[in-house]
Design a protein that fits this description.
Number of helices: 17
Order of helices and strands: HHHHHHHHHHHHHHHHH
Strand content: under 5%
Length: 368
């Protein structure tokens, strides 16, 4: 759960069989044209007065050239508005198709989607967009396939590029499709893409996943992603409530560990302890169990229960005798008991295992 996000195998169950036309974007463009026309009319009186005043200072010839240039610019602006509205209308109605290119069958793309052939879905959608650049079906599936392909790759430039492609295509599809189905499912995937972009995008992740939930779409990992994003944003209460909701859907050692951290950050140490013990009892991932024991040790030390803290750190060393951090923390337990000799012995072991363990080196420089 640390930095990796929720499990990647979750299938969104998208029912993207139909995209219905919507007139929202056309209405916006039409309103823009109407407002532009009205503005031109309001400018009429000024355009009549301005040349006369200009004549007084620059002469009729120069004023005439300026009037002509201004008229041309205004005409071009009005034409651009009309062309934009026409392109959007034709694209959304499916009539804006290149004479040289032919879209791939949508059924073929759906078949590849069902088979999880992300590369084929992306390639066919991209080829189809050359013929129908504003078709929400092809835009949507290009973005969705890009996201799931990215989830199959390790961290790196290729993965980051696919996430960017996913976000761009899905956002464009959402604009073109308006409020038609499957908007909520696309918002869900868009939110996950933003989450995997990193902490700087957690607010966008929250925005789109919350929107998908409001629209009635809830995937198995929706609450898990929300919990992690809210935790990253420092919104402790929302993180805790979403972790609790996520745990009603499924329980894994990593999810329990993340939920325990959220509870501890919110000041609920008892709840955190219970979650950590449950994670240890059900988990098979040794690294996750080690992290649980470190967190339990912190809880017990904060309570002044050195014996139970020592037990957790000793269990870590039993599995991994080369854990410099476990030796360091065990040294802190002995220091709290007043046993400086054993404490320094543990810190020396930590430095021997990891010469760059700064905390242990600092402790060894302190005077007894």
């Amino acid at each position: 759960m640390d930095g990796g996000g929720p499990e990647r195998g979750t299938e969104p169950g998208l029912q993207a069989r139909l995209f219905f036309e919507d007139t929202a974007a056309i209405d916006v463009c039409a309103a823009f044209v109407v407002q532009g026309t009205a503005a031109l009319r309001r400018c009429g009186p000024f355009m009549k007065i301005f040349p006369r005043r200009l004549d007084q200072h620059t002469g009729g010839y120069l004023a005439q050239r300026r009037r002509k240039r201004t008229s041309i610019l205004l005409a071009v602006a009005a034409a651009a508005c009309l062309i934009t509205a026409t392109i959007v209308h034709l694209g959304r109605s499916g009539r804006l198709v290149s004479a040289k290119a032919k879209p791939v069958s949508k059924q073929s793309i759906l078949d590849d989607w069902d088979a999880k052939k992300w590369d084929e879905v992306r390639a066919d959608s991209l080829a189809s967009l050359a013929a129908a650049p504003l078709d929400s079906f092809y835009l949507g599936f290009k973005g969705l396939a890009s996201f799931y392909k990215a989830m199959e790759l390790p961290e790196g430039e290729d993965r980051a590029a696919l996430l960017d492609e996913s976000i761009f295509s899905i956002r464009k599809a959402l604009v073109v499709a308006g409020r038609s189905a499957p908007r909520a499912q696309m918002e869900y995937v868009l939110g996950k893409a933003y989450y995997h972009k990193g902490a700087s995008y957690y607010d966008e992740a929250v925005k789109y996943i919350e929107a998908s939930l409001l629209s009635g779409f809830s995937a198995a990992d929706s609450r898990e992603y929300l919990a992690l994003a809210y935790a990253g944003l420092g919104q402790k209460d929302k993180a805790v409530s979403n972790f609790e909701a996520a745990l009603t859907v499924k329980k894994t050692d990593l999810l329990l560990l993340a939920a325990a951290r959220a509870q501890l950050d919110a000041g609920a140490a008892d709840k955190a302890e219970a979650l950590l013990l449950e994670a240890i009892s059900m988990g098979t991932d040794e690294l996750a169990r080690e992290k649980c024991r470190f967190l339990l040790g912190e809880i017990y030390q904060s309570r002044g229960d050195g014996l139970r803290a020592e037990e957790q750190y000793s269990l870590i060393l039993k599995k991994d005798s080369e854990s410099a951090e476990a030796h360091y923390r065990l040294g802190l337990v002995f220091q709290e008991r007043g046993d400086q000799m054993r404490a320094r012995a543990e810190w020396r072991k930590a430095v021997a295992l990891d010469p760059m363990h700064a905390a242990s080196r600092q402790k060894l420089t302190e005077k007894l």
